[in-house]
């Protein structure tokens, strides 16, 4: 039976960084997991008289949030105090990721992470796993049982990581290939080729993963790029023959459309030009960039490149894409740019979908797209409610939830046309 959801239905006709606009409708009809129609309530109910109606009143109905860069294995170490990137990895991250050698632990954390993400309105995520193939299995099992569209890959490292968290160029290739063949395209799951970052991969490992990507061009490839200045100096020392950080990937076949680079804060003019030319995607992780002290992403890049938004859990300090939009707003303010709420919302939905090359499936509300929706209460706390009282348009209603909202604002989540 079709469902008709009534509320303030927000979708996008185009990219607000390129002059495109949001649109507001009164109802969305979903059937067999997909959006069937969007429009005025009377017209929708006349056209679909047998649909089951759920009235969400003044709540906002949007495409579910898409977290384009997350480390689900870092769920338990979110909000760990006092370190910058390399120390933070060595002190908190690597010891925790070591525990994923135990498939039962991996399964426990994967389930916990997914439930936290859903409670925050995140309906799709692109995660890093750990070095252990079982951590990929755990993530995909958890996503599959919840019906989610989700991405992950074994995080490959063959140097500068502790014993127990290192593979080799050959085993990274073999394990990644086996996992890709096992999972890519199963239900709504996609495998992502995942070298962690250049400091923890030899050129031989990057080359092996470049070869695997060449053999499987439909997959995404994700890694980290130019997050902290100390990291960039380390890359320069490790790869003296490379022109810059991006070149360490480019030289091994890890730069083209379908490449998804997390952070990308401290880019040289050559790197910006090559990223644009290659059609790569960047993922902005603002709560992480402030929490670990990395720097301020240049959102001016969103007019030239595909940019997604992400929590970067657990370098990021929140599971919430609302908190993440707030941080993106603040980071842009520090660079002299006031992002419009429509741009923030777009980044967390369409923008992330486009960065993951999934804009034909998720990230918006339009006929034919998969019905992954979030219903957001725009008055979820007394502080937010009082801030909306004088709102004169949709965005004045929404912005207080962006800046002050969290999981309490999430009224409902629909996954593949089913209310969870
Ligand atoms: N760079 C390499 N690995 C990581 C990670 O796990 N988190 C963050 N924020 N940056 C990284
Ligand atoms: Zn990351």
CATH architecture assignment name of the largest domain: Alpha-Beta Barrel
Question: What is the total number of structural domains?
Answer: 2
Based on helices, strands and strand pairing, what is the structural class? alpha/beta
What Rg do the Cα atoms give?
A: 21 Å
Total number of beta strands: 16
Contiguous helical run count: 14
The termini sit apart by 16 Å
Approximately how much helix is present in the residues? Answer: 25-40%
Ligands (ions, cofactors included):
guanine, zinc ion
Residue stretches low in confidence (pLDDT < 50, at least 5 long) are none
**Helix-strand sequence:** EEEHEEHHEHEEHEHEHHEHEHEHHEHHEE
Provide the descriptors you would attach to this structure in a database record.
16 strands; binds zinc ion; binds guanine; 37% helix; Urease, subunit C, domain 1; 7-stranded mixed beta sheet; 9-stranded parallel beta sheet; 23% strand; TIM Barrel; alpha/beta; globular; 420 residues; 2 domains; single chain
